[in-house]
Amino acid sequence: MHTITETRPGHWLAVFAVLGAGLAIALNVGKVPVALPALRAELGLSLVQAGWVSSMLTTVAVFSAAMVGMWVGRLGALRMVLGGLVLCAGSSLLAASFSHGFATLIVCRLFEGMGFMIVAVSCPALVTAATTPLQRRFALGLWSSYMPAGAGLAMAVAPGLLPTLGWRGLWLLTSLALLLAAAALWQQRQHFAAAVATPLAQHVSFFGPVRQALSHPLPWMLALSFGVWAIQHFALIVWLPTYLIEQRHTSTTNAALLTSLMLVACVPGNVLGGMLVQRGLPRGLLLALAQTATGLGALVYSSESLPDGLRYLACVTVSLVGGVIPAAVMASSTVLARTPQQVGTLQGLYMQGAQLGQFVGTPAIAAIVAASGQWRSALMVTLPSALIGVVLGMTAQRLEGRLAAQP
Questions:
Q1: What is the pLDDT of residues 77-121, one digit of tens each?
Q2: Is 376 within 8 Å of 158 (Cβ atoms)?
Q3: 110 within some domain
Q4: What was the pLDDT predicted at 70?
Q5: CB of 259 closer than 8 Å to CB of 233
Q6: What is the pLDDT of residue 176?
Q7: Could you give the CA distance from residue 83 to residue 129 in angstroms, rounded to a whole number?
């Protein structure tokens, strides 16, 4: 089994600085759903155009995350993260200052997506550089909480800020958060020495380390596991606010807060996943059990015969238990990667798997629900995804066992 074996002491302030960068880019995901009505009203966006504004970050990641990950070791993770934060901040600032229609907004959103993807793929290499081998599995599990924590925070505070600041003020605040995150990382730069750029002369072939990282089937199983979890997770994110507003006549603000609480419930799941992997619980078994729980939870929250309180509790539970999946997947680079470039390659693959699941699963669910007129029909997508996830988890368990047995 391959590991990165630096012996420098861990630096948790540096790890939290990396987590701050993740939270900052996740704000750019969570700010849009709540602000879409204001965007549509001011800029005259159609539903299709609003959908593109919301999904642009995902679209960029689907088509390029794995390739960006390959460059982490070559260009240097710190350099890439700082560049991505500044790119994202600048794009958000330009959108707030100059967007008066769809064209300018979508171009700025495209560059926001590029910055988001660069930061999300490169940060795990910084976590690896700042921690000891014994700390890394937990630290990478903690890192996996950046998305639900940041997006949930944005969804929780945006309804209170929009009436006074408008969507442009919200975009400016996210730009400030991104620049502060970049400053915090720069202040901790001495702790990321192991993630510096690799000179070209040290590799005969750029793709040599990449092929080595991806030659075993285990990373592919883990990326697929991440993808089928993303299908279920984003189906829940789409289903809950729509159900609350359209069928239970909940206000937009309360629906956003309840959805935010459900989303943030994923964070303790991420931490728990990191702790369980750190304690040696078999990764594949953890994935299989979590996928089983999310599938069963979908049966509960989709059942119209059950009380609303129980159904909402099932939503929160699915988010909580499902949170162990990204933690277990992302922490696998501690046993699969030999170099920072391989960490970036693996994390890019995992991110592409997750984004592909969201990219494919969300419209598939929307089409099925639109055809049937019932949200319960989303189970036609979520349940098979959970079953596939169980199979992938057990397969990953066997593959990791074989890998551990190798000299």
A1: 999 999 999 999 999 999 999 989 999 999 999 999 999 999 999
A2: no
A3: yes
A4: 82
A5: no
A6: 97
A7: 18
pLDDT score for 369: 77
* Residues 221-260: tens digit of each pLDDT: 999 999 999 999 887 877 787 778 878 888 878 888 898 8
Assess contact for 33 and 54: CB atoms under 8 A. yes
- Asked if residue 4 belongs to a domain, the reply is no
CB 295 within 8 A of CB 386: yes
- Residue 28 CA to residue 58 CA, distance in Å, equals 12
Whole-Å CA distances, 104 to 12, 93, 323, 377: 40, 12, 35, 37
Mean predicted confidence (pLDDT) in 335-345: 76
Q: What single-letter amino acid sits at 81?
A: V
What CATH number is attached to the domain comprising 378?
1.20.1250.20
Number of structural domains in the chain:
1
**Residue 295 falls inside a structural domain:** yes
Mean pLDDT, rounded, for 33-39: 85
C-alpha–C-alpha distance, residues 70 and 74, integer Å: 8
**pLDDT at residue 198 in the model:** 56
Q: Is residue 323 part of a domain?
A: yes
Instruction: Give the other-Cβ count within 10 Å of 309's Cβ.
Output: 8
* φ, ψ dihedrals at 114, nearest 5°: -65, -45
Residue 302's domain spans which residues? 12-194+208-405
